[in-house]
Design brief:
- The protein is α+β, with helices and mostly antiparallel strands and about 110 residues long.
- It has a domain at about 1-35.
- Helices cover about 35% and strands about 10% of the residues.
- The chain has a three-stranded antiparallel beta sheet, with no helix packed on it.
- The longest helix is centred in the first third of the chain and has 28 residues, at about 1-30.
- It is rod-shaped, with a radius of gyration of 29 Å.
- The chain starts with a helix and ends with a helix.
- The chain binds zinc ion (2 copies).
Length: about 110
């Protein structure tokens, strides 16, 4: 009688511990702090010719050249883009870094 009671108590305790652990794991994974810390700033893309700024990759509606992602590099001659600074593989000129619209408007 005593051992049966102990067995029930033990199983109840271990079940409780398991349930507590099971509820803790998903709440840790769903922690919203990581999501909130991520920058919400969206990528912007700019035309290397006229400075047109868009929020998506694509072509400038005016110049029909590929928009350059802000932070990427582009060739001022042929408008080829690259992720890193260096020489253009097509014409050998130095690649320029695409700066955000706000920075270029201030220097004008
Ligand atoms: Zn343009
Ligand atoms: Zn080039």
């Amino acid at each position: 009688m005593k051992t049966l009671f102990a067995a029930i108590l033990f199983s109840a305790m271990s079940f409780g511990a398991f349930a507590q652990q099971a509820t803790q794991v998903p709440s840790k994974l769903n922690s919203p702090t990581r999501m909130n810390q991520a920058p919400v700033q969206a990528d912007s893309y700019r035309c290397p010719i006229c400075g047109y700024t868009g929020t998506k990759a694509g072509d400038c509606p005016k110049d029909k050249v590929a928009l350059v992602k802000v932070g990427d590099y582009y060739c001022p001659e042929c408008y080829m883009t690259a992720k890193k600074a260096g020489k253009c593989t097509m014409c050998g000129v130095d690649m320029k870094k695409m700066v955000p619209a706000t920075a270029s408007t201030t220097k004008k």
